[in-house]
Design a protein that fits this description.
By secondary structure, the chain is α/β, with parallel strands linked by helices. The protein is 41% helix and 13% strand. It has a six-stranded parallel sheet, sandwiched between helices. The termini are close together.
Length: 231
């Protein structure tokens, strides 16, 4: 995913949620400042080319799906899905997070040599400023949903989970396997439910770009529309 392709969809996200682009750009730049001068993790070192990658969400079904993650070549897990998979003995190869729930897990992962994709957006600058300095920069991958810079990446995606999917795609995964994804999770807030709707639309776009059918979308495609601006 390059930013020229992502930007029209990103514009639609900003409009849908009322987010100002300037907020994302300021957050991106602050994250870039915090890692400036540090050697951060090169995401290409994940070696996902040709791999079956489990993209783990933190939905209620995760525990039942954990065995499908364990069987994959690599696991990219969103936020608290990391903790829940590790409790079941499933190794996580990377964490994708905007630091809103379990930042201490991200710190521990970087300290143990597991990369953490840290995302900055307009709403989480205080969390970025609080936690990123405590992470081992050698295992931090700084990301943004705005235009990338020479320090901060954009691989596409909006929520932690679909960003993990776009990242796996970007680095050549052969198959994406979705575990712990529940688009109709009754336990989340209305805002989070709307974000899940967008995650669903973005995955629909991604599977069309890849020429792959994601099982997590089976039985749902007739009711999904592509995001505005998606090619």
């Amino acid at each position: 995913m390059d930013f020229q392709t992502w930007e029209p969809v990103y514009d639609g996200l900003l409009a849908a949620f009322g987010y100002p682009r300037e907020g994302d750009e300021q957050a991106r730049d602050r994250l870039g400042e915090l890692v400036s001068g540090e050697t951060t993790y090169s995401p290409a070192d994940l070696a996902l080319d040709g791999a079956t990658v489990a993209v783990a969400g933190a939905g209620p079904s995760l525990e039942d799906d954990a065995h499908r993650a364990a069987d994959a070549d690599a696991v990219l897990a969103a936020s608290t899905a990391v903790d829940r998979l590790r409790e079941r003995g499933v190794t996580v190869d990377a964490m994708v997070t905007d630091l809103d729930k379990n930042p201490e897990t991200g710190r521990a992962l970087t300290e143990s040599g597991t990369p953490v994709f840290v995302h900055a957006h307009g709403d989480n600058v205080p969390a970025v400023e609080t936690h990123v300095p405590d992470y081992d920069p050698a295992f931090v991958v700084p990301t943004t949903q705005a235009a990338p810079t020479d320090r901060v990446y954009n691989f596409g995606g909006f929520t932690d989970g679909d960003r993990a999917a776009f990242t796996a795609d970007h680095f050549g995964a052969d198959e994406l396997r979705f575990v712990g994804w529940d688009f109709d999770d009754p336990t989340v807030s209305p805002e989070k439910l709307e974000k899940l709707r967008w995650a669903e639309r973005l995955l629909y776009w991604l599977e069309r770009r890849r020429g792959e059918r994601f099982g997590v979308l089976d039985g749902r495609r007739d009711d999904i529309s592509l995001p505005d601006g998606a090619d």
